[in-house]
Design a protein that fits this description.
about 25% helix; nine-stranded mixed beta sheet; alpha+beta; globular; 6 helices; 16 strands; single chain; about 30% strand
Length: about 260
């Protein structure tokens, strides 16, 4: 099992967590969250993170979640002494009203090495929500690592690819990027990249991708809040790490504006 980074701070609704207040986040199974990397007190796609939290809170609990309130809670946890961090915002509703837990850990990034992914026949329930209780994907990810892979690749029973266990995946056919058109969580990094790539000479489209289609692509990559990484293998199919592609992706991502929390 992968060891999580040490917890630096945790607050619930702007106050220090007590044992009583931690009971619901620890034991309650219904909730959702967003994860962001903060550098210099700013993060990419803040508006998308806040919209994600509001939309999921409305769907799960029937209440909106004010973005400025969330920003205030994040700033309260970071205070003046933490400018770089991995931040998670969790939302529960123990008494019917949204309750926000913010955790702060040291900053993190994608592994530098190219990834090997193990396909597994599993799809997350309600995949459009970044919800809690992801035992299935976490277990498949752990089993993939035990088998010598870096993570799991989630597929339908017929081999249609949806997403990585904790990533989105894109495929490159030499001229354009194809994002799998299947039920998945459309991650913030993917949402930031997708509309900006055409201007960098990388047109994109969404289309079904199956395991049987893998040989028709020359390269693949994964994205999440920690960044972007190339894929070197999916099961027995090898991919070349396309340095030019990865440089373009990295530049587009690096040029994405940062939003002050």
């Amino acid at each position: 099992m992968t060891t999580p980074a040490p917890l630096l701070r945790l607050e619930i609704d702007g106050r220090a967590a007590t044992a009583d207040r931690l009971l619901w986040p620890a034991l309650g199974g219904v909730g959702h969250f967003t994860a962001m990397q903060v550098r210099g007190g700013a993060t990419r796609g803040l508006g998308l993170h806040l919209a994600r939290l509001d939309e999921a809170t409305r769907e799960l609990f029937g209440h909106g979640l004010d973005g400025e309130h969330v920003r205030t809670l994040i700033r309260n946890v970071l205070r003046d002494d933490i400018t770089d961090a991995s931040v998670r915002v969790h939302v529960h509703a123990p008494e019917g009203e949204p309750s926000v837990t913010v955790t702060v850990r040291p900053p993190g990034g994608m592994p530098e090495s190219a990834q090997a992914l193990r396909p597994v026949p599993y799809q997350r329930p309600f995949p459009h929500i970044k919800h809690l209780g992801g035992f299935g994907q976490a277990r498949h990810g752990e089993l993939a690592r035990r088998a010598g892979f870096d993570d799991a690749l989630l597929t339908a029973p017929d081999g249609t690819i949806s997403e990585g266990a904790v990533t989105n995946i894109g495929f490159y056919d030499g001229s354009e990027i194809v994002w799998p058109d299947a039920p998945c969580l459309t991650g913030i990094t993917m949402r930031l990249l997708e509309p900006r790539l055409a201007a960098a000479g990388l047109p994109t489209r969404r289309a079904p991708v199956t395991l049987a289609d893998l040989s028709s692509y020359t390269a693949a990559f994964v994205t999440n809040a920690r960044g972007i990484a190339p894929v070197r293998r999916i099961d027995a199919t090898d991919f070349t790490v396309d340095e030019k592609l990865m440089e373009t992706l990295a530049k587009v991502y690096a040029d994405t504006p940062w939003d002050t929390v």
